Amino acid sequence: MANIVAIVGRPNVGKSTFFNRLVGQRKAIMDDESGVTRDRHYGYAEWIGKNFTVVDTGGYVHGSDDIFEESIRKQVELAINEATVILFMVDVEAGVTGLDEEFANVLRRSKKPIYIVANKADTFQRGHQAGEFYALGLGEEVFPISSQSGSGTGDLLDEVVKHFKTEDEENPDEGIPKIAIMGRPNVGKSSFVNLLLGEERNIVTDIAGTTRDSIHSRYKSFGKEFILIDTAGLRRKTKVHEDIEFYSVMRSIRALEESDVAVVMIDATRGIEAQDVNIVGLAIKNKKGVVILVNKWDLVEDKGTNTAKEFEEMIYEKLAPHNFMPIIFTSVLTKQRVHKAIEKVIEVYENKRMKISTSKLNEVMLKEIENYPPPSIKGKFVKIKYVTQIPTHNPTFAFFCNLPQYIRESYTRFLENKIRKHFGFEGVPINVIYKKK
Length: 437
Ligand SMILES: Nc1nc2c(ncn2[C@@H]2O[C@H](COP(=O)(O)OP(=O)(O)OP(=O)(O)O)[C@@H](O)[C@H]2O)c(=O)[nH]1
Ligand SMILES: Nc1nc2c(ncn2[C@@H]2O[C@H](COP(=O)(O)OP(=O)(O)OP(=O)(O)O)[C@@H](O)[C@H]2O)c(=O)[nH]1
What we know:
This protein is of the alpha/beta class. It has helices at 15-23, 67-82, 98-107, 124-129, 153-160, 189-197, 231-235, 244-258, 274-285, 307-319, 338-352, 358-371, 409-423; strands spanning 4-8, 41-47, 50-56, 85-91, 114-119, 142-144, 178-183, 203-205, 216-221, 224-229, 261-267, 289-295, 327-329, 384-390, 396-401, 431-436. The strands form three sheets. The protein has a seven-stranded mixed beta sheet, with helices on both faces. The protein has a six-stranded mixed beta sheet with strand order 2-3-1-4-5-6, sandwiched between helices.
């Protein structure tokens, strides 16, 4: 089971700053204007050898009937449901505010361990003022910290990790593909997700809560188990338009980072467009498996025997030199080939984890290399001695040779093509690297 730390608190106390410090990347969106962190953000962190997930909740404004704020409130509750430990962040500069008290009232109902994190305690003097938060009558202890400088965070984390389960527990999600569904607006992402989760919905496990909107929920659909990343954002449409594009891009990127396989949906009625090419490029750059769905296939009129083939060629041409992604023609509306799409995703995931033995690899590849050795450059002859697959998260092949610097890009493509020809790896980016030997 995962260890989850949720950071909650009213807007502008420094949740994003603290989150970024823990996660070590600028994953959350930060802004001086309050209320900017509008979505649940999560990332992975580590403290003295213990790994955990950090959830940064957006600002929570009580008693408002604004839909957007309502959804924020829900997300906070969700975070609370899912958390192993709750960090309730307050601001020593501001002292106890009415909103802090309202937060405390909600949090008091939670049975989870809660720590009050008194942020912006940049100086010793400020640290002393943190004592006033004991008045909230909540939590195990108040920890003065400065998210900006990092002071005090170590003591806090030492306490927090005491609540974690031990590391040697098996990851229950090991071997289950994490899927991100990507694509331009209106291509059918929500419909696809709803089809997967809707009628044949069958939640296998949830990290903690019972809600379907869990951060990493495992589903079984069409007979396959998988984890959909950040589906809440896909299915729940807010009525607020400001910055929606920005947030949807952010969400896609985040979902992509967390996933093993990206399902990229293309609209059959529009063909492949620049934005689609960008999305696929992003997935490949991130070394994710890719499955392309050409959706709304039902809307394509007068389909002949070659229509799909022509479509495929057009896509590969636009994505050149990448031609390893499977393409499935689907209609989410009529459920045509949706089952096949899911099967393909699982297959690509398995390809991504595939390991080829060194003996097999050398047997096959050294023969190919002998038939077509690296062309000599400036009188230099490159001699490749052996090849091995390096144990990494995505297929990486190291070719050991005398003069790695004299190998051209085109020869790398040749090697990649031969690996694919013999061993498959459909849908998965391959790394070919050279080492001096
Ligand atoms: N002095 C000081 N300022 C801080 C510290 N941590 C954060 N801030 C500042 O406080 C402001 C709000 O920080 P954020 O991290 O955006 O706060 P948030 O709680 O995520 O805010 P919302 O997105 O509105 O929920 C920013 O201007 C930060 O630079 C700190 O330790 N000391
Ligand atoms: N004919 C047809 N319509 C479809 C298909 N898939 C989705 N649609 C329709 O296309 C429209 C957009 O679908 P959504 O699922 O909302 O698309 P989305 O990609 O989630 O859109 P955004 O949330 O804007 O990014 C809806 O009216 C769907 O009913 C399909 O396979 N065939």
